[in-house]
Structure formats: C-alpha cells, structure tokens
C-alpha cells in the first residue's frame, strides 16, 4: 500500500505532466507513493497522456472527469480514491517544488503537525512565480482576510500545496464546499478544532508551460468560499453571485440612463434602450469573469455568441418580470411587493436560462 498519494488536478497540463511525474518520483525515492491525476476533460489531451503514463507505471492512476470542473472538487475526488495513509496536494505546472514532499511528510507522519503547508511568504521563501504585482497584491489581501476569518496564524493560508493524513481529510470531506481553488482555507475553517500547522518555505517558480488558471479574482474567490460555507445552503452560491452581479447591473443601468437622458438630453426611449444594453453587457462580462469563472468563455467568437445569448435570455427574463409584476399589481398587490416579485422571477429565469444556454448546464 502506498504511504503517500500525490493528487495532481489538471486542466490542459499535457506539456507539464510527464516531467513533473519524473520530478515527484525522484523526490520520493525510498517512499511508497502513488500519483492520482484528476483531469477535468482537458482539451489538449492531458487525460490521454496521463493514461499512457499510468500504463507504464502502476503507481500512477487517472480520474477523468466529464461535465464538471473545479480544482477543489477535483482534489477531493482524488483524496477519496486513494488508500494511502497520507495525501499531498500540489499543482501540475511545476510551480510547486516536489523536493519539499519528504520534509512535509516527515512533519505529519512524526506527529509534529496535523498539516504541512508550503508557504510562498515566510522567511526563506519566494513568490517570484506569481504573474505580476497584481497577483502578488491579490494573494496578500486574500491571506489577510483568511487570517482574520479563521484565526489561523499562517504566512500563506491560501497556499495550494499542502500535506496531511488522508483519514483526517476524508473525515472533513462532507463538510467542505468543494468550490473554488483554495481548498486549504476550506479545510482550516471546517475543522472542528484548530489544526496544528507547520510551514515550509517554498520558492514558488514560474509555470513551465501553458497558462495560469488563476487570475486577480483570488480575493473575490475567498469571499465566495466564505459565503458558501455559511450561507450556501440557504441561497445557492452561484445564484447569489448572479443576483449580486444583477444588482450592480441596475446601478450601471441607472448611471447610463442619467448620463444620456439628463446630462446629454437624449430622448428617454433611446437612453433607456442604450442603458439596458449597457447593463446587459456589463452583467455578461462580470458573470463570465466571476460567477462562471470555471466555465469562462474565451475567444472573440465564444464571447460574442455568449453575449448575444445572454442578452436574449435577459430579454425573456424581462418579459417574465414585467408580466408577473403587472398581473399581481392589477389584482391588488401593493406595487412595491408586485415589483419585487417580478424582479425575483426575472432573476431566477435569467439565471436558469443563462446557466443552461450560455455557460453550460449546472
């Protein structure tokens, strides 16, 4: 039985995978190990390469997921699939150094810590591989928020490279949201007691090939994970995000309408039409960036098609909104309540149609 399982969630990492497996094997010489590659149906053939690697080495296994994505959920599925006593989670792009695995394993296996974390920000570490100053600032902000919420004194609670006992993580799995990229933060906040954590300095390298799946929305993602933990069972997280973007879109609509009609003297109907188009465009852009980040549309053709589909679905939602509100008001319901009911129905309708026809089915 393997002592350590290394979980590698992958999405379009074909050019990085084989060389990373070689580095992990060299770093764990003398330790019984296995690698569980969890691929989210990569378009570049990552899963096919992973199967070829598994055919050549029985210590490598592959989980090929179709119809679902997300780093946290991929890691959890990998953890639940291994019999190893200890499990490590790391990226497949070479930014995490496999040479740290033995030291991290010793800390947990010897009982010195419940979880070992590779830190980019402690003394002796480096975050040089982060893509620009924006990513560094965003990661620093997310770390400060994480410490404030969890009370855990870590230099890098948003790290994606950590190791712990498999049975401990398996026991926590039902309490984890599986949303977003930052599974470590979810683990720290879900644990019934405060976990004993040790950190080791990580020289966070530049990715060798491909493009990063993360962006400057890392701090926003932390807030989404926090919402999902405490309120996600009341109002689904993705719908809450969609509705929040819609509320911002109302502000954009009013601002454009005021600018065109009041400040520039345009006719009301013309100004209202342009304001509606501006709000729809804003909502599409922000939903594509944040609400559906795991299904983000990329490329001119996909974006234009998605924008047109979104405007169409929102038009249908607007008709549902106005129709229901008018029906309820005509039957004596107070106008404010009737309007609110129309807004809710319109939002639900827009969410359902957009999720299905613009960003795929959820």
Task: Please name the defining characteristics of this protein.
362 residues, Spore Coat Polysaccharide Biosynthesis Protein SpsA, Chain A, 2 domains
Which range does the strand content fall in?
A: 5-15%
Low-confidence regions: none
| Name given to the CATH architecture of the largest domain | Alpha-Beta Complex
Total strands: 7
Structure annotation, total helices:
12
Termini separation? 37 Å
What letter string, H or E per element, gives the SSE order? EHEHEHEHEHEHHEHHHHH
Strand order of the largest sheet: 3-2-1-4-6-5-7
CATH class of the largest domain: Alpha Beta
Provide the fold topology.
Layout: E1 4-10, H1 14-27, E2 33-39, H2 46-56, E3 60-64, H3 71-80, E4 86-89, H4 101-109, E5 115-119, H5 132-150, E6 162-165, H6 166-172, H7 183-190, E7 197-201, H8 218-231, H9 237-263, H10 268-291, H11 300-330, H12 335-357
Parallel strand pairs: 1-2, 1-4, 2-3, 5-7
Antiparallel strand pairs: 4-6, 5-6
């Amino acid at each position: 039985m393997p002592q350590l399982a290394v979980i590698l969630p992958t999405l379009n990492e074909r050019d990085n995978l084989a060389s990373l497996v070689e580095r992990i094997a060299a770093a764990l010489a003398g330790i019984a190990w296995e690698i569980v590659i969890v691929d989210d149906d990569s378009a570049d053939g990552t899963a096919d390469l992973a199967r070829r690697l598994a055919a050549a080495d029985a210590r490598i296994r592959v989980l090929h997921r179709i119809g679902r994505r997300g780093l946290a959920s991929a890691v959890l599925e990998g953890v639940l699939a291994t019999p190893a006593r200890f499990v490590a989670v790391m990226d497949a792009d070479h930014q995490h150094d496999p040479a740290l695995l033995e030291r991290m394993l010793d800390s947990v296996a010897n009982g010195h810590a419940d979880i070992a974390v590779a830190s980019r920000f402690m003394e002796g570490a480096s975050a040089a591989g982060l893509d620009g100053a924006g990513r560094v600032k965003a990661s620093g902000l997310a770390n400060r928020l994480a410490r404030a919420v969890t009370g855990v004194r870590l230099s890098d609670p948003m790290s994606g490279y950590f190791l712990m006992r498999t049975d401990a993580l398996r026991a926590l799995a039902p309490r984890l949201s599986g949303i977003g990229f930052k599974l470590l933060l979810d683990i720290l906040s879900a644990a019934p007691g405060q976990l004993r954590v040790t950190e080791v300095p990580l020289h966070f390298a530049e990715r060798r090939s491909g493009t990063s799946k993360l962006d400057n929305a890392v701090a926003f993602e932390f807030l989404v994970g926090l919402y999902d933990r405490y309120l996600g069972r009341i109002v689904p997280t993705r719908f809450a995000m969609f509705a929040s973007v819609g509320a911002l879109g109302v502000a954009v609509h009013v601002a454009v309408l005021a600018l065109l009609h009041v400040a520039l003297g345009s006719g009301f109907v013309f100004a209202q039409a342009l304001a509606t188009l501006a709000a729809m465009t804003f909502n599409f852009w922000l939903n594509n960036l944040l609400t559906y980040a795991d299904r983000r549309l990329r490329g001119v053709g996909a974006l234009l098609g998605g924008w047109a589909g979104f405007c169409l679905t929102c038009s249908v939602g607007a008709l549902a909104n106005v129709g229901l509100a008018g029906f309820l008001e005509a039957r004596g319901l107070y106008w404010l309540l009737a309007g609110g009911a129309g807004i809710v129905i319109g939002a639900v309708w827009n969410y359902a149609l957009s999720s299905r026809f613009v960003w795929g089915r959820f």
